[in-house]
Structure of Reverse transcriptase domain-containing protein:
Amino acid sequence: MEVENRELVMELDMGSAVSVIGKEKYHEQLRHVPVESTTLQLHTYTGETMKPLGVLSVRVRYGEQSKYLQLYVMKGTGPTLFGREWLHVIRLNWPLMHLETQSGFRDVLDRHAAVFSDELGRLLNIKARIQLKEEPTPRFWKARPIALARKPAVERGLNQLVAEGIVKRVTHSEWAAPVVIPIKKDGEVRICGDFKVKTNPQLDVGKYPLPRIEEMYANLSGGQQFIVIDLRQAYLQMEIDEESKTYLTVNTHRGLYQYQRLPYGVASAPAVWQRAMDHVLQGISGVQCYLDDIIVTGRTREEHLKALD
């Protein structure tokens, strides 16, 4: 992308409403452009609020297109982002971009084809442990009634959870939570344990921190190419240790089911998962995990492919 007659490498980010540049990169390439004040506040992927240092009015050229657009200056050394605001104005050459993205990565993808299977994945050698406060009191909730018209979908949902090894039928438990059953767009249902009524109040959630946006930028600084791996049903890829399964039992119209994988809705699940992923990925440069997203980068194409592999 040509910005103010200078070639500027930008990362296309459809999750970013605006286009941004780090302070260091601004001084390196665009310091001749005056910074104007702005009242804009941005909300990051991690829920934090960040205020730009200012905004630039820059001339952007792409092919035969030429537009004056706004580019926001941020603290730090994060990647220069091509956001949705520019995307509405600049028409990108999508076929060319697609070919460039596919080239060079096919061998890596082929070597790890099993990762893209439709089957639920499993995190190896690490199991989730649910810590309770001292002297917890078991609580047993009765199954909530289900509308007759919804029962067939609920039956299919339970059968699917059993088939995938996510839950297992049990005959007895001192602990039992009811379930909530939201309806999906396709008319099917999602069966979730309502752990806030009995397990979450007695959990020792712990203090394991999620990475801050500044830390993520620092870990990924210098990267020239970026790939985001979205882990499907991330928590459910993690098995639960035997003791913890007792606390993650749900009561349904068909009886008791015990979770074998880490379910959503458990208050400590984000910290448990983040700790596990940090352990798995430690020592790999150019990699940053935030819950179910893994960002992979490298200073060169070779470094990028090595980290991805």
User: Anything to note?
Assistant: The chain has nine helices and 17 strands.
